[in-house]
Design brief:
5-stranded antiparallel beta sheet, mainly beta
């Protein structure tokens, strides 16, 4: 329960910071990086430009600031074809095209992805802008 409340508090803090700073972008770091936050702009596509990914140490909170996007989501355990884990960036990609759940992320909504959730973002048309908060899970 405490971790869930912490995730919500961090997401709301990041959202408030972007509103206060006009959505121009920022990266915030704690002294011992328990979380980071950044505004990201991406070109939505039919999925050919992006691969599914997951992290091992951080959960992602993604908050849509503009038109939104669709994110394909699947349990990590159901996918294969994983690349080598990048420890510095805490990310690993998969080229697996197994069936996924399509999660619409509309303007003003958010989604939380834990290390056991693989996700393929930026599906759709146009340009999408969102806040991505990474919370250390240990």
């Amino acid at each position: 329960m405490k971790r869930t409340l912490a995730l919500i508090l961090i997401a709301l803090t990041a959202f408030a910071a972007v509103v206060c700073w006009g959505g121009k972008g920022f990266v915030a770091h704690a002294d011992d990086p328990q979380f980071t936050a950044a505004v990201k702009v991406g070109l939505a596509s039919d999925g050919e430009l992006y691969y599914g990914d997951t992290a091992r140490l951080y959960a992602d909170i993604q908050i849509a600031l503009t038109q939104g996007e669709t994110i394909d989501v699947a349990p990590v355990a159901t996918l294969g074809d994983w690349d080598e884990y990048n420890q510095q960036s805490d990310i690993v990609f998969t080229g697996d095209t197994a069936p996924c759940v399509e999660l619409p992320l509309h303007k003003g909504t958010f989604a939380v992805f834990f290390p056991w959730d693989a996700h393929k973002p930026c599906l759709g048309e146009g340009t999408t802008k969102k806040i991505v908060v990474k919370v250390f899970m240990g």
